[in-house]
Known about the structure:
- Helix 4 (145-165) links the parallel strand 5 and strand 6.
- The protein is built from eight helices and seven strands, in the order E-H-E-E-H-E-H-E-H-E-H-H-H-H-E.
- The chain has 255 residues and is an alpha/beta fold.
Amino acid sequence: MNLNYDGKVAIVTGASSGIGRATALALAEEGAKVVGASRHAPEEDVEGISHFEIDLSTVEGPATLVEHAIRLHGRLDVLVNNAATGQVNRGFIDESEESWMSALNLNLLAAARAIRAALPHLLVQGGVVVNVTSVNGRVPSFQASAYSASKAALLNLGNAVASEYADRDIRVVTISPGLTATPMWLGPEGIAQQVAHMIGGDPESIASDTASETPLKRFLTPEEIANCICFIASTRASAVTGTELVVDGGITQTM
Length: 255
């Protein structure tokens, strides 16, 4: 199926690894010119993807990113807000002010700032915003209150912008992944490691046990999420806006 990305320009945040990297690769493979953004460069360069190192948690970061993409390619068609951070705790009362501010700043405010900066350029020819949230936006975890709250707020924000701009050829769609094999879960400082530090045990066993409790009995791959993002941001999904696509392997149906 041709997703009609030839000549299109996309920004993907959090593009050095995980879902962001898989999305940047998938969009480039479909013919888009991709500007990937993160604080650290990916391990290798790929044709069709240019990387922009930037801290999106700063007030000026998202606008600087959009300006860079416009200078580089002269237009913008797709914005994928994927960059995120999260921390697990024993419970709500144990989550620090720093953890709350970090989650709200990157998971919510950075996306809001990016949308605000991107809209004038998307309005030129029409475009799409994809916000990557989480099943925790609807099924919050008491061990990750700040993360859950920030993702719920991002879902709400996306729906609000979608309503305002639907008649101006701007679509806004939310993708909510479930348990996915990304550095946020499996990395050296990921959730499995954090849980192991809190309760004991080894991260590998914690990850394996967690996966075994899901309907698919496994982690989703970043590529599975990326494929959904590519489709939903394409002209093949031109009637889809102001809604959420849950890609969780059936987790929320069992809760």
